[in-house]
Amino acid sequence: MTRSQAPQRVQRGRVLVIDDETDIRDLVSRALQGAGYDIDTAADGQTGLTLALARDYQLVILDLVMPLTDGHEVLTALRRARTDVPVLVLSCQSDVPTKVSCLDSGASDYLTKPFSLDELLARVRVQLRGEHGEHQPDQQIRVGHLVLDLGRMYADAGPGPVQLTRLEMLLLRELMEHDGESVSKGSLLASVWGIDFDPGSNVVDVCVRRLRSKLGFDLIKTVRGAGYRLAA
Questions:
Q1: CATH code of domain 3-127
Q2: Is 140-230 a domain of CATH 1.10.10.10?
Q3: 57-67, pLDDT tens digit by residue?
Q4: pTM for the predicted model, two decimal places
Q5: Distance of CA 201 to CAs 14, 106, 109, Å?
Q6: What is the rounded distance in angstroms from the CA atom of residue 92 to the CA atom of residue 118?
Q7: DSSP-assigned letters across all residues of 71-97
């Protein structure tokens, strides 16, 4: 094979992995590099936060229990400075209060250790959906007075545009595309998060709560026993 015929590596984005466990950093880095991502790593929260604020990343994968600065502090500081970078928490802490706290603090997703590499890669793909041309910059969806801009990741329910996270955007899009219909939690988990979750997971509820706080508490209706419905 000549040089001109050599296959070109597809660049899918730059990811920062912050974890004090060498084995985890190496495992995740190799898997992501094999899938075409550029990787930077940090072995403690302080170094990770410095990198996250100084460089342009499409995703941060963050452990919680680390020396110097723990993951909770990193998440809070990163969200205070930048709202555009999705953060996937990767932690051995599996209790519901910790998960809810991280999601409420701005984490885009939460995956517990031990984990499947296939599941991790699936969740990374969801977080980076739209980063590399899936949505046109000016593509918009309108339902009644509600406007969702897929490229810029903002929604306007009347008072003015509000910036959304990627998961918030994808969930709102799903509800808008099923305007007038009830969409079950299971359907939202599959379409937005891209994989099957524990049916007891409350990540959909947390994401809906964040959307309501940003766009109005009457925008999304809870349909008891059926899921959620847009009320635009």
A1: 3.40.50.2300
A2: yes
A3: 999 999 999 98
A4: 0.63
A5: 29, 17, 12
A6: 18
A7: HHHHHHHHHHH-SSS-EEEEES---HH
